Fold this protein.
Amino acid sequence: MSAHIHYSTAELENDLRYLRLLSRSFPTVAAASTEIINLEAILNLPKGTEHFLTDIHGEYEAFQHVLKNASGTVKRKVNEIFGNSLRESEKKDLCTLIYYPQEKLELVKAQEADMSEWYEITLNRLVKVCQSVSSKYTRSKVNKALPKDFSYIIQELLHETEADPNKHAYFNQIISTIISTRRADAFIIAMCNLIQRLAIDSLHIVGDIYDRGPGAHIIMDTICDYHNFDIQWGNHDILWMGAFAGNDACIANVLRIALRYGNLDTLEEGYGINLLPLATFAMETYPRLDNGIFTPRINCSRRVYSENELKIIARMHKAISVIQWKLEGRMIKDHPEYAMHDRMLLDKINRTEGTVTLADGSVYQMLDTDFPTVDPSDPYELTEKEVSLLKGIHRSFVISEKLRKHVYCLLRHGSFYLARNNNLMYHASIPLEPDGSFREVTVLGKPYAGRRLLDRLDELVQIACRINSDDPERPQAVDYMWYLWCGPDSPLFGKDRMATFERYFIADKSTHAEGKGNYYHLIDDAAMCDKILTEFGLPTESSHIINGHVPVKTLKGENPVKADGKLLVIDGGFSKAYQSTTGIAGYTLVYHSRGFQLVQHEPFESRKKAIEEGQDIISNTVLSEFKARRLLVRDTDKGRELASQVCELNKLLAAYRRGLIREQV
């Protein structure tokens, strides 16, 4: 044990300066010993449960439900505690109450004849669940999570039991008094929220919070208030961060995607972006629009639009799309090092023939050639009205206080990758050569590969999004945000091109294909995964790579588990836009003290149905990887930090006992 480790006087003298600093926090043998006892106890607790989600894409109701039920963790706990002592309907009602306490209470009160009895039964059940989910934490950590109004009462209930004959009356009296003082509703809500919080120790969001779905801003509000989380940026997150940084090509893409899916709530309600000038410009510029190309996909929207509103959105959609292609063309001209000239297609349009010539020389008939703002002699030049429109929209993005708050949250808690507890998390890919070597990517004139590439890009994102920064690299960093969204060597994109133009204007679907990078052709190989894990400082045994980005098409037999279980792809279609091709509504991953569980979810119908009918997301565990022994805190990265602290404290004890440092009594 650490208490019996012997340190020589020479060893202690080498560390004397640090130990004197440490003695300020632990000025006596008793103080240092108490902290060692505390830390050693923590090291022997079960590790906390980690929850991994990715590619949420604005689907806030499904996201919040999965967060509330902890991908089935709460239901599993309820089943473990009550087993056959409760009917399935009772367990379902209890779970629904834990997920949505306020709403469920209203339903119960409208149906229940004897609320006093219901309160007593329910409070006892909730205490048992709360005792279970809190059992792997220290009292100190649980106490910090307790709601202020009920802190003392919950502490008493968690650490006493009605089964103890000496405390039976005491325990029951607490429950009775909560009911008699009419605090039962508030207490139940507090207990349910506490259970949700304690069920998950840390949340990992492996990218793509934004776009397609209606409530990315609601998701960001939820995440930014979460007790312990981290984010690995996806290309859709970077797009919004680039828009906030002032990259006009990113701004145009953000608007186009929102209009394409009929989701204006995040823009208007979430971030206060004024779309009226765009609507006015679009109605004046595109009075005739009847080919359906720009009609929004409203199946992803929570709004119900009239036919006239859909026509206006379609015109706005076309107007911003044309502006986007102009801005992107200018970006590519300004940065030949991006090597994206194949994406400049406005100058390849033959108006007379109604065709476009692609980079490989093939010619295709276009579905639409009505471009009144495109000058054939200088197709990438913005008109005066477009310049004026863009200036106003640009200002709306960079001054949005809510967007600033969310982007700064992404900066503080986010990164390109995270290595935690033998798991390597990044959203999409690592640029690779065909032979599996790490591809060198030139960033602002210098080559980077592997981990060094992601570290450098992480630095650039921080520079770009600090809008008051006077860093000389900031203008180039802001431009590079667009490349990170769609560039062929962007680790967040991982494809040879983004074929947006072809999808809009060419009927031949073969032109819509976006070739996946070498990473996706090599990653089924366990040796390739080992090479990546080693590059990021992780052991090859018992480590995993966790990705999102590419939806797992279960309808076509695709498997989220690759390379003999070394790589897990947990994007299975949270977004409704993907569910017709994936066949499911996403994967999530739970990593608790007993091992991994990869959970596959069916589409979430609605929050309303979850509350009124107790409809939980139908979830199936598709992979369980259980450990031979239960994992403890000492097996985690945090545990290794705590063990190091124990080592230093033992040195301090030895220094006290040898008189090298005097106690401050």
User: Anything to note?
Assistant: The first helix runs from residue 9 to 14. The chain has a mean pLDDT of 90. The chain is about 50% helix and 10% strand. The two ends are 28 Å apart (CA to CA).
